[in-house]
Amino acid sequence: MALLPLGTLFSAVRLPAELLLAIIGGKAPSRDVDQLLDEVLGGPVICDPRHARYYALVPASMPRTWHQAADDWREVEVDCLGHGTYLGVPRVDAFELRSLTTYWSVPMQSMATLCAPLDIARLIAAGRHEMTREQDAT
After folding, report:
1. Using CA atoms, how far apart are residues 128 and 71, in angstroms rounded to an integer?
2. Is the Cβ–Cβ distance between 76 and 95 less than 8 Å?
3. Which of 114, 88, 87 has its CA nearest to residue 101?
4. How many angstroms separate the CA atoms of 51 and 56, rounded?
5. pTM for this entry
6. Domain count, the chain
7. Separation of alpha carbons 55 and 62, rounded Å
C-alpha cells in the first residue's frame, strides 16, 4: 500500500459501506457492491473492508466545487477529501475482497478516468433515500 496526497492529481469521496449496502440490501462489503459501483460510477474506487468504507477517486477540484453538497453529505458520514489529506492506495493488482485487506473495488484504468461528481451525488442521494425508507419502515 502507498500513501498518496490528495488534491493535486485527484481527490476522493469517502462513502460508508452502510450507504451503499442500503441500495443493494446487503450486510457487508461484497462483489455486489463492487458491481454497483462499477456500473454507476465507472471510475476507480478503493474498498477498505476493515473500516467498512469506500473511496471513489474524483477530480482534484471536487472538494472545492462541491463544498455545499459535501456539507450536507456529512449527515450520512460521506466526506470529500482533498488537499492536505493522504489516501492509502492498494497495490495495482489487489482486485479481490480478501478478509480485511484494502483492494480496488473498481480498478483504475488510467489517471485520466475518474468518477464523475454528478454520478457520486446521484449515488449518495439514492443511498440516503434507501436509508430513510428503511428507518421509516422500522
Report:
1. 14
2. no
3. 88
4. 15
5. 0.93
6. 1
7. 13
Backbone φ, ψ for residue 59 (5° rounding): -55, 145
Cell numbers at residue 6, please? 490528495
The alpha carbon of 79 is separated from its chain's Cα centroid by a whole number of angstroms, namely 9
Task: State the number of CA atoms in the 13 A half-sphere of 102 facing the CB.
Answer: 16
Backbone angles phi, psi at 97, to 5 degrees: -75, 110
Q: How far is CA 88 from the centre of its chain?
A: 13
Which of helix, strand or coil describes residue 80? Answer: strand
> What is the amino acid identity at position 98?
R
Domain hosting residue 101, numbered range:
2-137
What is the pLDDT tens value at each position of the chain, 138 positions in all? 789 999 999 999 999 999 999 999 888 778 899 999 999 999 999 999 999 999 999 999 999 999 999 999 999 999 999 999 999 999 988 887 777 789 999 998 887 899 999 999 999 999 999 998 877 776
